[in-house]
Amino acid sequence: MFDWLQHFADWLIYSVFNIGAETHLGTALNFFVYDTLKILILLFLIVFLMGIVNAYFPIERLKNYLNRKKLYGLEYLFASIFGAITPFCSCSSVPLFIGFVQGGIPLGVTFAFLITSPLVNEVAIAMFIGMFGIKATLIYATSGILLGTIGGWLLGKFNLEPLLSDWVKKILESKMQQGEYEAEKSTFRQRLPGISRGAWDIVKGVVLYVIIGIAIGAVMHGYVPDNFFGQYLGGGQWWTVPFAVILAVPMYTNAAGIVPVIQVFVAKGVPLGTAIAFMMATVGLSIPEATLLKKVMSMKLISIYFGIVTLFIILSGFLFNLIL
Questions:
Q1: Residue 80 vs residues 45, 143, 237: alpha-carbon distances, Å
Q2: How would DSSP label each residue in 168-227?
Q3: Phi, psi for 89 (deg, rounded to 5)
Q4: Which of 90, 186, 221, 300 would staple 190 via disulfide (CB 3.0–4.6 Å)?
């Protein structure tokens, strides 16, 4: 879908600026250009589509349904499965998370999506099957979906809405004051300029956070060698799982990018469960993601979210080492 962006980043960095593809600087800048453009485009498109949904679909009714209807946790499972079938990394998932919050979807349900989306996708599953077999793949995919479902449910029970950022609260308040769309009888063409302006306003509101977050990720991607952590995770001691997860959180990559690294870890003697926990923490939590989320969450909410997901990944790592 974004191959043209990758070609553009390659052309810009390697041809126009003549920076070598094999250099740390070239790798970091290429990553920065590609991911910044990709996330900003995703952000605009997703918020734009959510604006159309809000204009035509009774989102308030859906929100009330999710809040009041006894679905026995299935809403969290559905959101987690939806996250699993969307091929987004942790930072790319943030725009859709913003769209969910803007649309009034319950916060716990949006967290279920945000947790699972970067952890499980079809590319990672295909690579996992080829590298580790069906059993490990099923355990990995199922645990990712369950982690999102349980994590979203637990976070939903904490009533964390007051910890959303003032920026999000203002958006939600303005929607409540407007009530139902006044232009209910207007045509799509008449509504389109307003929807586009709303999407662009949101993009402008988060663009600085996107640039800062991706810049941090680019430095890590370009300058941290793949074998930096592998040498410290080869033992079977109990502390290697939490150590792997804590070390992985500052990293930033997607599942497709980290799976080959995990294969190298395992080949060098790192237990598969520890390696998967490292991968989950790398793709599911990152400093760039936290930087992006700072626009929509308070630091307290970000800390709660990261803390719970980190704990769940550590527990999953211990479980993986027992059954794999």
A1: 21, 11, 32
A2: HHHHHHHHHHH-S-TTTTS-HHHHHHHHHHHHHHHHHHHHHHHHHHHHHHHHHHHHS-TT
A3: -85, 180
A4: 186
Among positive and negative, which fits the CA dihedral 74, 315, 163, 210?
Answer: negative
The C-alpha atoms of residue 117 and residue 147 are separated, in whole angstroms, by 11
Looking up tokens 């370009």, which residue turns up? Answer: 222
Per residue in 9-20, pLDDT tens? 999 999 999 999
Q: Distance between CA 60 and CA 77 in Å, rounded?
A: 21
Domain ranges, residue 271: 3-323
In 3-state terms, the chain is what percent helix, strand and coil (to 5)?
Answer: 80, 0, 20
Return the closest-CA partner of residue 163 out of 3, 323, 305: 305
Instruction: Report the sign of the C-alpha dihedral through residues 283, 284, 286, 290, in that order.
Output: positive
Count of the separate structural domains present in the chain: 1
Is the pTM higher than 0.70? The answer reads no
Give the model confidence (pLDDT) of 111-169 as tens digits. 998 888 878 866 677 667 767 888 888 988 899 999 999 999 999 899 888 898 887 77
pLDDT digits (tens, 9 = 90+) for 282-313: 888 877 778 778 878 899 999 999 999 999 99
* Residue 170, token pair as written in the block: 């203002």
For residue 222, what are its two tokens? 């370009």
